Amino acid sequence: MSVNEALAARRTCRTFTREPLAAGVLDSLLERARRTPTAGNCQGVEFLVLEGPDEVAAFWGSTLAPEKRRSFPWPGLLSAPGIVIPFGLPEVYLDRYSEDDKAASGLGGDMADWPVPYWLTDAAFAAMALQLLVVEEGLGSCFFGLFGNEEAVRERFEVPGSARSPGAIAIGHPDRDAQRPSTSASRPRRPAASVVHHGRW
């Protein structure tokens, strides 16, 4: 499958079967996804991998209150047998940009010196690559934000306090008979002429 084919085939899957993932499939996917670019080749993206009923239930127990679960619009999302959360580690970037070949950038002192927090940018690159690799593997995925739950996830799974995540990726076997597209799926794609600006905006 080409990258073009994977992009065309990728769809957000919000309803999964309870079929477990094959042994080692998440590690195999992450071995490839972690090869995405990072600023200064600092490789400051790490992954929290939650697999199997107990670990996945611990995630939802930390992020979805029982009273909200009854009205949660995507109950099939909770059936995904795996969740991967990429985290960018700011201190790795600060250390890398304090090294001799990067010190002139002025980015090695403080997180506030970075106009764009590349630890989040690079974690998002890895998240996108992982979703395309999931397509190639014949599985489904759903990327969703942690929003106000990031701190709860850090505490529950002992993630370093400085680590930041763009969101989580649920991975599993799509329940193709129960898929219900979101209302956003009906929005037409904007034409290329309105989003690609040649020469000037």
Structural features, described:
The chain contains 8 helices and 4 strands. The protein is of the alpha+beta class. It has a single domain (13-180), classed as NADH Oxidase (3-Layer(aba) Sandwich), CATH 3.40.109.10. Strands 1-2-4-3 form a 4-stranded antiparallel β-sheet. α1 packs across α6, α2 packs across α6 and α3 crosses α7 (150-157). The model has no long low-confidence stretch (mean pLDDT 93).
CATH class label? Alpha Beta
End-to-end CA span: 34 Å
Specify the helix fraction band.
25-40%
Query: What is the overall pLDDT average?
Result: 93
Tell me about the largest β-sheet. Answer: 4 strands, antiparallel
Ranges with pLDDT <50 over ≥5 residues? none
Task: Give a quick summary of the entry.
Helix content is 34%, strand content 12%. By secondary structure, the chain is of the alpha+beta class.
